[in-house]
Structure formats: C-alpha cells, structure tokens
Amino acid sequence: MAEPAARRCCLGWDFSTQQVKVVAVDAELNVFYEDSTYHLLLKDTGLFAVKNDVNYLTFSIIDMCQTQGGVHVHEDGLTVTSPVLMWVQALDIILEKMKASGFDFSQVLALSGAGQQHGSVYWKAGASRVLTSLSPDLLLHEQLQACFSITDCPVWMDSSTTAQCRQLEAAVGGAQALSGLTGSRAYERFTGNQIAKIYQQKPEAYSHTERISLVSSFAASLFLGSYSPIDHSDGSGMNLLRIQDKVWSQACLAACAPHLEEKLGPAVPSCSVVGSISSYYVRRYGFSSGCKVVAFTGDNPASLAGMRLEEGDIAVSLGTSDTLFLWLQEPTPALEGHIFCSPVDPQHYMALLCFKNGSLMREKIRDESASRSWGEFSKALQSTEMGNGGNLGFYFDVMEITPEIIGRHRFTAENREVSAFPGDVEIRALIEGQFMAKKIHAEGLGYRVNFNITLIVPKTKILATGGASHNRDILQVLADVFGAPVYVIDTTNSACVGSAYRAFHGLAAGTGMPFSEVVKLAPNPRLAATPTLGASQIYEALLQRYAKLEQRILTQTREPPE
Ligand SMILES: O=C(CO)[C@@H](O)[C@H](O)CF
User: Fold this and answer.
1) Which of the residues 92, 108, 210, 333 has the least number of beta carbons within 10 Å of its own beta carbon?
2) Strand pairing report for 462-465 and 314-318
3) How many angstroms is it from 351 CA to the middle of ligand 1?
4) Least confident of 67-71, 104-108, 306-310
5) Tens digits of per-residue pLDDT, 162-175?
C-alpha cells in the first residue's frame, strides 16, 4: 500500500485536570489526528493509573480506582493536588500510542500546548541535568522519578491558601491594588499564594527546589529537555506578574517567598519559540531536530486562541458554570473576574468571568416551570416578550461568584419584590437575568460592544459554546440582551486546537504576521441568532434596573435588616 502522503503539521497538547490530549493540525488547519488519556487516582493513597482508551498502562495499581478526575482532594476538604508523575506517564502513553499507530513525527514543524491554569510543579536541585540527558531507551517517567521536590502538585481546585491571600493583599496595599497590579485580587488557587504556602509549610522542599513551573511550562520543559519559561498569559494567573509591563512584581515575589524570581526564571511573550525539541524525541520517536517548541500557556488562553476570538468579541461558554472570555484592549482590573495578558496579541488582554449558577440553574427552572422539557422551555421563551413586561429575576441556588449573592429574588416592573412568577415569566426572567448579569459584569471589566460605524451593525460577535448553545431560543435572548449577533462553534478540543494554532503562529512570529492572519483558513463559526429589531432600546433600560437591583440585593445580604 502506498505510503500516506507526508503531511506537514503542528501538534497542540492539553495537560488538563482529567486528561492529557493531543491534536495534529495540517497546514490547511484541518485536525487529522487526536488522542487522549484519562487520569485515575486512588483515594487517600496518591497511587494512580493512566488509562488510554480501554487499556491501563501496567502500573502497580489496585484494580478498582476509587476516584477519577485526576485530582486528590485531601482530608481538610480544601487542599487539592495531582501527582506530577501521572502527567509525565500520560505523555509517555500518548507518544507510545502515536508511535505504534505509525504517526509520522518527522512532519511536525512545531508544537505548543496548554496546561490547567495556576497549578505548579517543583523541580528538585539537579533535575535540569536529568532533563538535558534523557536516554531514548527509556520512558520519561522512568527517568524523572527523582526530579521533583514536591510530588503532589497543588492544582486550580485548591482553596487552602486564604491566609496567604490576605498576607499578599496586605503586602501590596489591598485587594484592588493587587488586582490593578496583577489582573486579579488574591485567589486561593493562584500560584503565588500556593508557593507561599509551600515555603511556609515545607521549607525543606522549597529550599531544594531549583525551578518552579506552571503546568503549562512544565509540559513545555518535557519537550524542550530543559526548563521552559512561563509565558505572559498563563503567568497572569499567579498574582505575581505585572500585567501592564509584563515583569514579575518584586513586591508580590517578596511577599510570597525568598529567592522566588530565580526559581521562576523570566516570563516570555506567549508567541515565543522557546527552543527546538529535545534530542530524546528525535531519537526515540523520529521528530525532526528542527521541530520548534512554542511557549505553552494556560488552558483558557489556549481556548481563546482555539475559538479565534478577535478584538471586540466575547465567548460565552454555557456549561455547568457559565464562563465568559473577553478580548480587551485596555483592561479595567476589578475585584471580580480575572484579566490575563492575551495569548495571541502582546498589546492586548483577555478576561475571564465565571458564573457558578449556569446549566444546573437552567435545568432546575426547566423542571419546575417547563415540565422537565426543553421544548416547553423554548415555547415559554417564544411566548413571552423581550423585557418580560418589566419583570426581573436573580436565580442563585448556590452562592454565586459574580457577584457573591445566594437565593432567588424576583421583582415586578415597579421594583416590588415578589415570591413567584407565572411559569413562562419565570423562564424568561431566568434567561434574561443570566445574560444581563454577564453584560453588566463584562462591561465592569472594560468590555464594550464594538460597532462597525460604516455598517451601523455591531462588529462584535458573540461565540456561544457549551450545552445550552444548542438551544436556539436561549441564543436569541443572548443576541437581544447584548445587541450583537451570536455564532456557535464546536469547542470540544479548543485548548488543543488553539495550541496547534499558536504553534503555527510561533513559526510566523519573526514575520510579525498577526494571529488572525495565521488562522484565517480555520473553519468559521455558524451564525445562530441576530438581535431582534428594538432589542437594544428595551434592554438598555432593563440593564440599568437590573444593575441597581443587584446592588440592592448585595447591600441587603451584606447588611440584613435589623
Ligand atoms: O481556574 C481556572 C481559571 O482561572 C480553571 O479554568 C482552570 O484553568 C481549569 F484547569
């Protein structure tokens, strides 16, 4: 059989919480190969298996894994870690499977990747010598066993560093000062606070650490065969990087731990080529020695790249919790949300806003007011008018993140609080309320709907993803509230695909070609809804009422009546 035609490509990797994934993308930006592994962890033992399809790689592991999802929640219920060697073994598995499948590694021009944000890896003194002299006769995990001073790494689900957060904010003049400096107030999962905890509670391990990586730069180091620098975008999730001039904040470093800057190394622009692939991969897998490694970044910045978000766009991920990805020219750091340096444009920024009451809240109201049927839910939206007759609702059955409110609060057109709405009014109040909250808080971070003056239509587009993005009636409300067209895209592998796109961008970095030009051949999103005529007038007034009522609820819940 004729050999398959050579297919020059870039690889995009994603070291996420539950798995390691890879995609291969050709020069026409078609995805032609993908694979993944799943992490399984044994409760309270730290033992793990890495599953690839139906086969477990043989480890000394008990058959039944009691937990999965790649994390170990400790007994305090706050500390959450993952074994670093589990990530290393996952990479071994995927590479071995690609090799067994006959994947032609010699055609890989460059690779980049993503890692779950905020997680940190602690390389033991001397580890760099092991990294630079890997034997192609052995798997990575067989050679890196003794290279880490902390074997169970803190990850983004950890919330055990509240004390360290308060210490850091106090050191730099408060929460808003820290947000203005690093793009976020102190968050427990952010890496600077995690490093401070390790320095305070495991000083021996900290002193034996020669390098601290993020999960993203750790993964890049495995391919580089030396320590990869942290990129500006993922580095923005540490409460340590000054996002305006993109250098480490000396005040934040000093507040977290001594000699930290030398352990982190310099941060680099996200589109940087950080080197060529290690000879280990050339000799064991047949990569070309000219294959470039482009700085890895966080999973959310990589997803923004994968969605090809452009200036003025907004991506709304409608999942268990709803997440907004914003493209910002000039950030307005606040006490909520996160601002990161853009992964694809060194002059601009991206913002992340998380809304905890997402799909679970929509499903509850569907069950209560639409007989558990999405068809009935849609009919209710179709049968009620934009603006819902002035009725407004706030639906937070779990403590909301943005803003910190809990409970259900309903108001009539006269701003009188009531305990119930008719079913169809309830449904529209939920959806309009969820999207008005998103618009108001996005504008709080500096987002504005961009109008293309010549055409008097918004240049802004909204990219909707996640489960609820399959419901056209929900998307119609989204378009009406934002006054912008809504498109849908498949984001199943957005972090991986975005990483492959960034690898191509890294190869073109020397030419100054913008990311949007590099990825112009990628599949376009599909238009799903455009704003109804008159929508902006209706929601302009309603948004102002919503914002005032939100403040009223916040005041009431912070200072309950005597
Ligand atoms: O903490 C987060 C973002 O700030 C999560 O989205 C992690 O990146 C998930 F890995």
Assistant:
1) 210
2) parallel
3) 12
4) 67-71
5) 999 999 999 999 99
Which letter does DSSP use for residue 484 in this model? S
Nearest residue (CA) to ligand 1, atom 1: 156
Residue-wise pLDDT tens digits, 500-517 = 999 999 999 878 899 999
Rounded to an integer, what distance in angstroms lies between the CA atom of residue 490 and that of residue 471?
A: 14
Separation of CA 68 and ligand 1 centre (Å):
18
Measured from the CB, is residue 217 less than 6 Å from ligand 1?
no
Residue whose entry in the numeric block shows the structure tokens 């005032």: 548
**Rg over CA atoms, the chain:** 24
DSSP per residue over 83-144, as a string?
EHHHHHHHHHHHHHHHHHTT--GGGEEEEEEEE-TT-EEEEETTHHHHHHT--TTS-HHHHS
* Residue closest by Cα to atom 9 of ligand 1: 116
| Residue 321 CB–ligand 1 contact under 6 Å | no
Write the pLDDT tens digit of every residue in 15-42: 998 889 999 999 999 999 999 987 766 5
Structure tokens at 91: 């990479």
Please give the mean pLDDT across all residues of the chain: 92
For residues 510-531, give the mean pLDDT.
93
CA 156 to centroid of ligand 1, rounded, Å: 6
3-state secondary structure of 211: strand
Q: Return all residues near 274 (Cβ < 8 A) that are at least 6 apart.
A: 220, 224, 228, 229, 268, 293, 294, 295
Pocket perturbation via mutation, ligand 1, pick of 17, 299, 336 by most ligand atoms within 8 A of CB: 299
